[in-house]
Design a protein that fits this description.
The protein is 42% helix and 18% strand. The longest helix has 14 residues. The protein has eleven helices and eleven strands. The strands form two sheets. A seven-stranded mixed sheet has the order 3-2-1-4-9-6-10, sandwiched between helices. A four-stranded mixed sheet has the order 5-11-7-8. A hairpin with a 2-residue loop joins β7 and β8. α8 runs antiparallel to α9 and α9 packs antiparallel against α10. With 287 residues, it is an alpha/beta fold.
Length: 287
């Protein structure tokens, strides 16, 4: 079964992973009519991988090299992909994530039943082959600043996307949450799909969710834009993440200690126990 859906996959120097994302999109029981891979790095190896897959999937697969510039990034790439999309339903998939083969069938059916503008599907986080429940969309979550959205679990109508002018290219961290919050405030309707059919890669190089000064600054920017409308627990969580992003082995010792204390100050008992459980299992995650 084919469905009139355009899938947009932004990619940045992930030639080793993007093929998995593309393959999972075309392996759907409800196969999308179009898959657009937007490469903001214009990486030769990524282009080679995509063009090789074009031999299998034909004109349904498009390689789109994006223009580099100060607003380059996942937000700009998603907007560029939607700009050339041929269909009225858009699904987003990050280059290091993948879908269960029933993902689109469920998302399209959920939208048909609900007549919603946006369908958000629960997802798994996968770290070294082990999975744990991750994004959990729900009406209650949709009303918060933790709506359960990622770069890979949203199906949206083109009209809803255009109503907020797409992703904010100046929001380089939590751009998916910013996008959903603006949709919510514009009156767009959203519904959660029932089954957990999206897989988020929890490790890998180049995650903006990895510890870095750029991530910290991005979180501070999100807080500056949305902080006045966030409840205390959401602000606390964001401040905890800002401190965590600034803990680096390359940082001066006193700076590391200061930010470690900041993480503790803004942590709840549940935060602490969750961190301890992951460390006891010898696992971490980039998200």
């Amino acid at each position: 079964m084919n469905v009139d859906v355009s899938v947009v996959i932004p990619t940045h120097e992930r030639a080793d992973l993007v093929g998995r994302a593309i393959t999972s999109a075309f392996a759907q029981t409800a196969r999308p009519a179009q898959v657009i891979v937007v490469d903001d790095a214009r990486d030769a190896e990524t282009e080679r991988v995509v063009r090789a897959l074009m031999q299998t999937y034909g004109p349904a697969l498009t390689y789109l090299p994006a223009e580099p510039g100060p607003t380059a990034g996942a937000s700009a790439s998603r907007n560029a992909g939607v700009a050339v999309a041929a269909y009225g339903l858009i699904a987003f998939l990050d280059d290091d994530d993948w879908w269960d083969d029933r993902y689109l069938e469920q998302a399209v059916a959920t939208r048909a039943l609900s007549h919603a503008d946006v369908v958000v599907t629960p997802s798994w986080m996968v770290v070294e082959g082990a999975r744990e429940e991750w994004a959990q969309p729900s009406p209650r979550a949709f009303a918060s600043f933790r709506p359960g959205v990622t770069g890979s679990n949203v199906l949206i109508t083109r009209d809803a996307f255009d109503s907020v002018s797409g992703f904010d290219t100046g929001m380089w961290v939590m751009n998916d949450v910013d996008f959903f919050v603006r949709l919510r405030e514009s009156g767009v309707s959203a519904v959660a799909a029932p089954d957990r059919l999206v897989y988020n890669e929890g490790r890998g190089d180049g995650h903006l969710t990895s510890a870095s000064e750029r991530r910290a600054q991005g979180l501070e920017h999100f807080l500056a834009v949305h902080g006045g409308r966030m409840d205390r627990s959401a602000v606390r969580l964001l401040k905890r993440r800002i401190h965590a992003a600034r803990i680096s082995h390359e940082s001066p010792r006193l700076q590391r200690i200061r930010h470690q204390l900041g993480v503790v100050w803004f942590s709840t008992p549940a935060d602490v126990s969750g961190t301890l459980r992951r460390r006891l299992r010898g696992r971490g995650r980039a998200h």
